[in-house]
Amino acid sequence: MNILGINAFHGDSSAAVLSDGAFVCGVEEERLNRVKHWAGFPQSAIREVLRDSGSALHDVKHVAISRDPSAHFLKKALFALRKRQGLDKITARLQNIKKVRDLGERLREIDGGFNGEIHHVEHHRAHIASAYFCSPYDEAACLSIDGFGDFCSSMSAIGRGNKLEILDTVTYPHSLGIFYTAVTQFLGFPKYGDEFKVMGLASYGTPRFLPQMRKIVLLKDNGQFETDLDYFVHAAEGVTMSWEAGEPFIGPLFSNKFIEELGPAREPGSELTDRHHDLAASLQAMYEEAFFHRVNWLQKKSGLKKLCLAGGCAMNSVANGKLFRNTDFTDVYIQSAAGDAGTALGAALYVWHQELGNERHFVMEHSYWGPEYDEAAIVTAMQQNIPGFTVDMAQGGAVDGFSIRRMGELDLLARDTAESIASGKIIGWYQGRSEWGPRALGNRSILVDPRRAEMKDILNSRVKRRETFRPFAPSILEERVGDYFEESYPDPFMIKVYPIRPSKRAEIPAVTHVDGTGRLQTVSKRQNPRYWTLIKAFEDQTGVPVVLNTSFNENEPIVNTPAEALSCFLRTRMDRLVLGNWVVDRAESAISD
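Now predict its structure.
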């Protein structure tokens, strides 16, 4: 039996399909319509996952959506009575709720319609389900933290077997996610998802504003927290938000009291000063205090040693990397789409296990659940985008500033590409199924030599065009992680930051952040043999089992199709594109720094 899960009318809209309880395929709408963090109805994603799973919507018996407008209804009603916000903001929220309730109408418009049952799964239950039911644990403490969803910002639970037991919640208007976003906006980063930038910026400062931050976030008994609402506008005035048919937008969250306490807000695009660095460091420090306050309470409450994390705040890889040092948990599981996109999968898993009572047998060990395009699609894309290309070039040929060949033997392809990386080239690496979640993890990646400190600037000038303070991540052979990092716990999803051993930092400067850390991805031969073979070939040639890995894109969603990979390659200044077994090298004369 198939279950379709969707995250709709919310940031990072997505769709996922379970088949008899096992994850079959999942994709974010942004990968298909090319609008970052798309927040509307994921119609293209629904069609894609149904096609990949070999099913039709009219054959699906259950659809699960990670929204439940009836959740916390009494608390919502009491809050509405106390706070009379602007009619425009209340109307926008009601319209969003109506779209969620009218989901059946939208589904009936898709390819033959839908006649099954619709399940509304509370947002944070879907988050927790996406972590626990994908984990290898039979019993675990579970925690979700984000901005808001269904009037809740955090939820804790215990997972046992195929059931979740909810322990507590933190409800609107108190939220660590809102706190983090408000300071992100205050620092001049207003776009949806900019919190990742500020997390990287924090390493450049010292937390000298932590006393002020402690006035804003207040730690309470039993793992609870509150925020001083005088510093925010969302509770008193409401906030303009857009969750329909485009990139999400959240209006300013901080109040004038924020400015009175911390000084003027930074204008977007203006110079970043030491004060801004220190504000970012103080934000991260305050988040970590509240995060570990909640996590340690949960550990003591549950008595368990295994933890499953989800929610947008579970993407805070800096805090995640400190879990073993700051808590008594010995195992942590965070799946690759821990943010809102992952609630599509979580809602489906919640219905399969919690509501339908089915036993568990699936464990998510890798992130490669997205669309895949065969060699015929790759050849067609090259025919349409490289004038003069023919299939006869499989044995080697040149056209319009490019040399093209097909290398069907993996070991040969890996050795040749590793040699190119070691010589300082920028490689677009496009293989197999795309990644589920926001990270490129070796199938839709740009790869360079981590030994070359200058590669960070070269990548930014020739391809990425992003802020120079943002770090690049290392992919490392799983069996070698302990040789390079102070923590050897594997992380195939690149969601934890660990200190790089001091003796190794000079060896891999391009992936060593200013504070001596790296957000690592461990690569195993079993989970991704092609990527592992490439990194192993690089180690054989250089002695270093690490490559710098960044997402295959240029200020856009990660590339999905072969044509998008070619387009990104052609309009930037990458040196080589590896599309499956096809290798496209740009002539040296066409590249200049």
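The first helix runs from residue 29 to 33.
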